[in-house]
Amino acid sequence: MKKRDTAQASRFHGDVVTQPACCRNQTAVAKLTSVFHCNFIANMEFTGSSYTGAFKNGRMEGEGEYKFPTETRYVGDMKDGMFHGKGVLYFPNGSKYEGTWEKGISKQGKYTFSDGLEYQEKDWDFCDGYDRQFYTERCNGLKPAGESQLTDLDPPRVIPDGCYDCGDGFYDPNTRVITDYEHQFLRNADDYEREWIVSTCRKSWDEIVGHSPDN
């Protein structure tokens, strides 16, 4: 398993990237604060999102910026209330996805991690079975013998008690909620993501592995 937030990248490669359904019909949820055909801010009353940009016939169209409640931002072209054309998704952890969109669906694009590493769908040689260095280790060199680097970020983040660091935030297994590193809500983990986090991600506590003298 790769030692970074490649789970997020995989959502853009091999799977279809879709714009959330709540973004596709903004007529019902947008409260316009000015006249059409102008650049202004519309408050999305029910979704908790916001939009700054151009409108046409009461729908988002032209260049604009759409901000989700999770602080993820889409900056780019809109048409008929949907992502359409060239656009970039900026994530709270500093990563981004640059893509070409058609009626709210990403048709092609590339994902760049917060440290500048670009994800490659083919010929991906980062953290494979033969080379498990972090990207910062490739850039800055390995630590001396006896010193370990636990994450791409060095020193690593302090994980809250009872939680996991899942690459783009902290996961609480009691609530099954993932928050960002500023402790703002990101999403609820489904069964598949929960299993992946528990089996692979760094946790806040230490466990004894191997032989136990009591057994």
TrEMBL record:
GO cellular component, one term: motile cilium
Species in which this protein is naturally found: Oncorhynchus mykiss
Matching SMART domains: MORN
Location (main, coarse): other
Pfam family, one: MORN
Signal peptide coordinates: none
SUPFAM superfamilies: Histone H3 K4-specific methyltransferase SET7/9 N-terminal domain
Name by which UniProt lists this protein: MORN repeat-containing protein 5
Subcellular location: Cell projection, Cilium, Flagellum
UniProt keyword terms in alphabetical order: Cell projection, Cilium, Flagellum, Repeat
Keyword Repeat: yes
Transmembrane segments: none
InterPro entries assigned to the protein according to its UniProt record, in alphabetical order: MORN, Morn5
